[in-house]
Amino acid sequence: MTALTTQRLIAAVFLTLGGWALFAPASVIELAIRPEYRSDDFLATFAMACFGAQACIFGIVAMTARFRKITFLSYGIILLPFFWFNYHYYFVEPVLTEIGLIDFVGNTIMLLLCWHGWRVAPE
Fold it and tell me: pTM for the whole thing?
């Protein structure tokens, strides 16, 4: 698999999960957040949609840019704190449902893709 294909797969994760949050924020809140933490307040829906919009922006950048080794390495390092987030908000302070752990799955896929991209990308 080429570096270009790898980065487009990273983009696909962002566009899929980000698109869900952007276009169906209430669905994300309903399925990914435990009932005791949910809010039907407009600001919660707005914040979730903003989160999705930012993910889509990066997905488009990842789809159209040309990643080099340093890009894959940097992105892989930047992903690491998100694993703490997933752990903390599922096990320590259980905000996320099991469906909410799809974020963990997406992060894991992207980290593995970053490792692969780093191996095959040009300097």
Answer: 0.90
The string of pLDDT tens digits covering residues 40-97 is: 899 999 999 999 999 999 999 999 999 999 999 999 999 999 999 999 999 999 999 9
DSSP 52-111: HHHHHHHHHHHHHS---HHHHHHHHHHHHHHHHHHHIIIIIS--B-TGGGHHHHHHHHHH
Q: Please tell me the distance from the alpha carbon of residue 40 to that of residue 45, in angstroms, as a whole number.
A: 7
Provide the 10 A C-beta neighbour count for residue 35: 7
Mean pLDDT rounded to a whole number for the chain: 96
What are the residues facing 33 on neighbouring strands? 96
Q: How many CA atoms lie within 13 A of 25 on its CB side?
A: 18
Closest by alpha carbon to 30, among 107, 103, 106, 100?
100
Q: Which amino acid is at 38?
A: R
To the nearest 10 degrees (0 to 180), the angle between helices 69-87 and 3-23 is 40
